[in-house]
Amino acid sequence: MSGSDATASEAMSLLRTHWGIEGTLTRLPGENINFLVDSPGTRRVLKITTDQESCPGLEEAVLERLHQAGFPVPGSFPTRSGDHVLQTDFESLPARIRLQSFLTGRQWREVGAGSSLLSDLGRTLARIHAALDDLVDTHPEAGRTHRWDLARV
Fold it and tell me: What is the pTM for the complete model shown?
């Protein structure tokens, strides 16, 4: 386990209790508390948020829409009780927790931005826009904003 031993230990306990799995945990960067979970034959990501303004239900709805449109996106694994978003305490704070599949890939900064890649990016963004077109009208949490919302700068 890497990351704070206490944090990783609590995360491992949640994995055992709610998903019935074990593995090696490696802390991942990000706004949330994220762990790569390496188990024999599979890799997953445990996503833990204690930010009460986050909307994991909206994130799941976005991922489902993108999946239906044919995009390779992480899928969520339900807990033993069938929940895709677990609500519990983590490090004495209210938390929402998900276990998702791990997608391999490369970061944009590692790839370079040639004209062909930029054209592909434009087409991909158009497909994403089309896939999510009416989500703001149909999902109760979709009207919210974020600190990084450029439309509100």
Answer: 0.83
